[in-house]
Design a protein that fits this description.
The chain has a single domain (46-313), classed as UbiA prenyltransferase (Tetracycline Repressor, domain 2, Orthogonal Bundle), CATH 1.10.357.140. The chain has helices spanning 2-6, 9-41, 48-64, 71-95, 110-113, 118-136, 141-163, 167-176, 178-187, 192-215, 217-223, 228-232, 236-257, 262-281, 287-295, 297-313. Helix 9 (178-187) packs antiparallel against helix 10 (192-215), helix 10 (192-215) runs antiparallel to helix 15 (287-295) and helix 14 (262-281) packs antiparallel against helix 15. 79% of the residues lie in helices and 0% in strands. The chain contains 16 helices and no strands. By secondary structure, the chain is mainly α.
C-alpha cells in the first residue's frame, strides 16, 4: 500500500517538481552572477550616462510639445535612451577591450578582465539594438531615419579615439541626437529651433566628456588614445569655460526662440552655478575631482529641464 502511494502520479509529479526546484535554486546564483556581469558591461550600476543622454532628449521633447508631450512618445524616448546608452557602453567596451586593462579607471570592466567574452558582448549589443529598433518602429519615418543615423554614430565613436584629435565632438553628437529625435517624434519635423538646441547639447557633450577625459589623461598619453583633454593641454580649463559660455548662450537663444520665461532662465542660473562649481573642482586637475566635475553634469542637465518644465507648467 505504501509503495502504491509513493509511486502514484501525483507523488511522482511532486518529486519531479521538488527536484527541478532544487536545481533552479542552485542555478539562480549562477544566472544572477552572469546577468550582473552583463549589467556592469551595460553600466547599469552607473546611471550618469543615462542622465546625460536623457536630459537633452527631454529638453527637446518639452520644447517641441510646448510643455504637453505625447505620452507614448515620452515612454518610447525614455526606454530608447536607456537601451541605446546600454548598447553604446557595450560596443565601446568591445572596441576598447585591449586598451581598458591599461587604464586605471577602466581596468575592472568585464571585457577587460575576461569576465565576459567578446562574442557574448557582440550578441548583447545586437540584441539591445534590435530591441531599440522595435521600439523606434512605433514612431514616424523621420524618427526611424534619425535612429538609424544614431546607431551608426554609436558604432563609429569608439574608433574615433584612435585617429581623431577631438573624439569628444563625435560623442557630443551622439549624446545630443535625442534632441532631433524628440522633435521628429513629436512634430514630424526638426525646425531651426530644434537644431539650435541640438548644437547646444553637442557643446555640452564636449564639455563633460573633456572633464571625463581629464581623469584618464596620463594613461591615454601612454597608450596613444586621443582626447580633447590632451588636445587642450594647459588651456583645458579656459577652453572648457569658453565652451560652457557657448552652451549657456545657445540655451538662452533657445529660450528666446521658444518664448520661455523666468522659470526657464532661473533653471539656467542654477545650471550656471553647477558649471562654476565644476571650474573649482577642475582647478588642480586632480583625477578624482575631475570625475566629480563630470558627474555633476547630471545636476546641470536636470536644472535646465526643471526650468523648462516649470516654465510651461506655470505659464499663464
Amino acid at each position: 500500500m505504501t509503495n502504491a502511494v509513493s509511486t502514484s502520479p501525483r507523488a511522482r509529479l511532486r518529486s519531479y517538481a521538488a527536484l527541478h526546484w532544487r536545481r533552479l535554486m542552485l542555478l539562480l546564483p549562477v544566472l544572477a552572477d552572469q546577468f550582473g556581469r552583463y549589467g556592469r558591461l551595460m553600466r547599469l550600476h552607473r546611471p550618469i550616462g543615462i542622465w546625460l543622454l536623457l536630459w537633452p532628449t527631454l529638453w527637446g521633447l518639452w520644447v517641441a510639445a510646448q510643455g504637453a508631450p505625447d505620452q507614448r512618445v515620452f515612454i518610447v524616448l525614455v526606454l530608447g535612451t536607456v537601451i541605446v546608452r546600454s548598447a553604446g557602453c557595450v560596443i565601446n567596451d568591445l572596441v576598447d577591450r585591449k586598451l581598458d586593462p591599461h587604464v586605471q579607471r577602466t581596468a575592472d570592466r568585464p571585457l577587460a578582465t575576461g569576465e565576459v567574452a567578446a562574442s557574448e558582448a557582440l550578441i548583447l549589443f545586437v540584441g539591445l539594438m534590435l530591441i531599440a529598433l522595435g521600439i523606434v518602429l512605433t514612431l514616424n519615418r523621420l524618427s526611424l531615419y534619425l535612429a538609424a543615423s544614431a546607431a551608426v554614430i554609436a558604432i563609429v565613436y569608439p574608433f574615433t579615439k584612435r585617429f581623431l584629435a577631438a573624439p569628444q565632438l563625435v560623442l557630443g553628437v551622439a549624446f545630443a541626437w535625442g534632441v532631433p529625435m524628440a522633435f521628429a517624434a513629436q512634430l514630424g519635423s526638426v525646425p531651426r529651433l530644434g537644431w539650435l538646441l541640438f548644437l547646444s547639447a553637442v557643446i555640452w557633450g564636449i564639455v563633460y566628456d573633456t572633464e571625463y577625459a581629464m581623469v584618464d589623461r596620463n594613461d591615454d598619453l601612454k597608450i596613444g588614445v586621443r582626447s580633447t583633454a590632451i588636445l587642450f593641454g594647459e588651456m583645458d580649463r579656459a577652453l572648457i569655460a569658453a565652451l560652457q559660455l557657448s552652451l549657456f548662450a545657445g540655451l538662452a537663444l533657445v529660450g528666446d526662440g521658444a518664448e520661455l520665461g523666468r522659470w526657464y532662465y532661473g533653471g539656467l542660473v542654477l545650471a550656471a552655478g553647477v558649471a562654476l562649481y565644476q571650474q573649482v573642482l577642475l582647478k588642480d586637475r586632480d583625477p578624482a575631482m575631475c570625475l566629480r566635475a563630470f558627474s555633476s553634469n547630471a545636476w546641470l542637465g536636470g536644472a535646465v529641464f526643471v526650468g523648462v518644465l516649470l516654465d510651461y507648467l506655470f505659464r499663464a
